[in-house]
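In this supplementary section we document a worked example of the pipeline. Step one takes a protein sequence of length 1181 as its only input; no multiple sequence alignment statistics are reported here. Step two produces a three-dimensional model, which step three serialises into structure tokens for compact storage. The input and output of this example are shown verbatim.
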Amino acid sequence: MKRKKIMSFSRLLCLLILLYPNLTLKGQDVTGYRPNFLPVSPDASQLFKYIDIPVNLYTGVPNIQVPLYEISENDLKLPIALSYHASGNRVADDATLVGLGWNLNAGGLISRQVRGLPDDSKVGVGFLRYITNHSIVAIQSATGQAKDDLLDPLSYGCQDAEPDLFYINVGNISATFSFDWDGSIKIASKNKIKITYSKETSGNQITAWQVVDEDGTIYQFNTSETSVSQNAQISNFCNYKVEFNSGWLLTKITSPRSGAYITLSYDGYSINQGWHSLESISHKLDGQCSGTIQGMISSSYSDFTVYGLRLKQIKTSSNVTTVNFGVNTATPRTDVTGVNNYSLDSIKVYNGNKLLKEFNPVYDYSAGRLTLRSIKEKNGSLSKNPYLFDYYTGGIGSKLSKAIDYLGYANGATSNQYLFPPSKLTLGTGEELYFTGANRNPDSAATCGGMLKKITYPTRGYDDFEYELNDYIYNASASSNPITRYETMSMVVSCNAAYGTGGITSNWVVTTKNFSIVNHDITQPLKTFPVEINVSGNEFFNGPGGGAYNPYVEIINLATGLAIYHQGISWNNENQSNYNTIKFLTAGNYQIKCAARYKESSGSMRADWASAYVSYEGETENILKAIKCPGLRIKTIKTSDGLNSPIVKRYDYKLTDGSGRSSGAIYAEPVYETTTYQRIQDGQVNFQCSYFTRLGNSWIVTGSTQGSHVGYDAVTVFSGNNGENGKSLYLFDSPHNYPDNIHLEFPYQPPLTQAFKTGLLKKQIDYSLSGTTFIPVKVKANTYDYISQDIQALKVGVKYPGGFSGAAYLDRYAEAYYNSTIGYARIKQEIDTLYDVNGKNPFVSSKKYFYDNPSHAQLTRTIENTSKGDEIVIKRTYPLDYTTSISVPINAMKTQNVVNETIENQVWKKISASDSSLISSSLTKYKQLSNGAIVPDKSYQIENSALIAKESFAPYANNDTFDSKYKLNTSFDLYDNTNANLIQYTNFEGAPVSYKWDYTLQYPIAECVNAQEKDIAFTSFEADGKGGWTFTGVSTTSPTNTVTGKNYYSLAAGAITKTGLTSTIKYVVSYWAKGASITITGGTLGSLFTGRTYNGYTYYERTITGTTSISISGSGQLDDIRIHPDNAQMTTYTFDPLVGITSKTDSKGQVNYFTYDELQRFSLAKDQDGNIIKHFIYHYK
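The serialised model returned by step three reads:
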């Protein structure tokens, strides 16, 4: 019989993308025009694939991931992976339960940056309580005692007028949000998300959050981690300890469509974290005050206990998938203290109660913390080769180590006694004092210690990582940022003089050495440089002439000829004398001079001598190309498949002007010095003391750009060490373009940030190498829009503590009113330029992006200028573009926040400056199922051979009307009301396609083309469903006694029936039978067709007409029974859930079989006779 033509593949592709946007079609497997929820044959093409490590080029940090497993529950996906952050390990870092630098990614988190008190603080008055009785306007306008009453508790941290910053990282959401003064939540996100929260019934603490993504997916965060101070209180004026929820963990994901959900549960643990929270030294500036000019050192130690949560189990609503996360309780960790601190010991994946696979990590402590060395996948007697992890030698030391750079990375400076670096102080008299201090400079070797060096994959391919220190040349907060800066180097100049003839003579032995101090900063011509002078010597004859005959050392200013430093060597009972001092010298030319003139004449070896050296950090004539700064970036990645020579990628972070200078930019350098004050009551007035105070940590916030303190304007990636396989240049916006407003004055409020504008790709240029010349191949240029919101905040500090207080002394407070800015960027325009093989004849195309409706974040228009000169405009509408009265489904979409679904998609061609014509348009209407799910109902299409004038087209309107030129493309007729699976659609020519689902409605087991769902049925007796048949018996499991799957049905347990048939339709009934005879009743039966025999079963097929029901009875065994209209084509499947398809039976009853090894890897493909078609054996080196 001639079959009716069915939907074209291109149309079906559009349909399926509309229906299932998160799924993919694999072109080589799409036969019979199947939707992409249908299974495909197993494919071992990934066998020798190894991971290509992506790199965040802007920060230089590679994105290292080890994917382990992905949980799938209907339309929900939850990947489980290990990730490694390769920017360096700070000395204060604790290892997670999977090792230092590693993180177990499975779920999501809401975290926060606390400003002042936690917003929902259990103690004091946090922001959420504070705003119920205060406004920032009232604080600003208050005066006198009312002002003092407001500022005093804020200044001591007892109350809080600074909203925290919250961060969401879950699913497709990466967002920032904050509370405003009216209690609302301000959100910065590319997604149109909704956020709600719950508080404890008798307090203010937030116990749970709910986040709804723009596709309606619901994320619940119903459990939290808590940090508690064990020894610190907020201040002497607020006698309570700090305690707050530091993060909320994902506990449930719910699909708005299927209602399916995934739950996550946790076990608790605690870890004690201690560090030097504050170390300072204060040098007295006023003679009457307490203290000394040498300084008074103070330090404090913070001891926090974190009550954390460790992932225990992930479970799906169907109970098909359970993943258990086990820990090694037999061997507690030795690198942390606390309760229940264990390493992850296993990840076990179950199908029901059946173990499918497990992952086992191995650790040591070679990096100074728990260190992941390998992880292996296994099941039963089979296991894959493990992932192996090698690390650079060394490791981070104690968390209390002072051998750290200024951001806390190890720097190997083990001689550091304190954390504050050297400083210079200029007194009011002009005298300059130099204070020694800690070496806080970064060190590459020390920072690399314990860092991941190599990953060897199960295939025995590998990635090898080489790092280098970050650097920069641009400091966005510097008051003077000269284009040209110069290198400095340690200069050492020395001299020696020893008299060699006997007796006192008038002849001096003199040695000299000239040196220069260079200053290129024309804005500070009198800038001074600290010069350390070290003198030693001996005066053996304290006799005639006295001091006039003593050896000495001088420094002479060659411009004036005058000695600016003189040090004589005095008699020291014939012992060596040592003199050390620091002089501050301006730029100029100098000479160091050593002189001596006595030696005993008796032949003794005793003689006067003098020796000296000066050392200083001096500028050279070399232009400064980079300033090293803490943390690591990737330098090279060598990638190998284990068989061939490695592929090298080299990363270069220099500017493109040929100067060789770093393209790195930072917001600010650390500031360790400030002036602090103390007031003392002196009679009826305050006496004020001032101190030069140095801290071990920066007074100011140095800023963060894309999670790093440094960002790079330009990065070149060479394929091959020297670009033998080409190179690509990437240009970014950084603090150079968008600096933060860093506040350098007390109380050091957070910066007004523009970080959300940085790290975005401005331009990418791809080159090929022709001989020795790089030829441009392609250029992509991007511009962006920025969406931001400002939330007012107030930080108050006591600038002048002590003394009298009250309304007359409001100057003791420092008030900082500032905006807390949150924002995000979105693409505005893309310009693509393609060149010919010679880098000539460019073809330029561009695309502009518009977001016309501020009520949502969706793209509403694109304008594309093609290389042919055409201008194409695409307009899109979404549920939030329509009024609430348009239709019940669209109203429901808004309620459920399913707001990213496209309603109408119009494609226009620009005809003139003021006119456009319609090329095509599509429209999707939706409906709401009884379970509340919103699903496509009908899709319409306009496809004309000629353009349609603008005035001749009526877009979809608020009254639910649309243009008559729209033609029905697809009708989505039926869904199941449990999981909202599509079970029938009708194409534009009227041909229905139907599906049956099973295995708790997770897998499609039958597709029937040209048949309605009520007219088909299929079961292989494998799972919980019956595929449209009705029977009361229970199937029997016997994997070797079936045709497909593992189960068969004995008719002795009861007959099988199908009702709801159409009497005018001719049906085909087919089945595999074994044993006694089978009887079919109902309607008129056609002749029996007997097919082949397999495994003792024989294939039978016959037609039946004139009935609305049939019954199959007898006493034999049955497998794979089908019924469908005679003019339809049915394909059926069986599965091993969570593993793969085990059989596929086509419309002719021919079966292909697929088997898997214990690790769920595709192993065999067999034809209907059991002949092997494909056989995969997994051999790794």
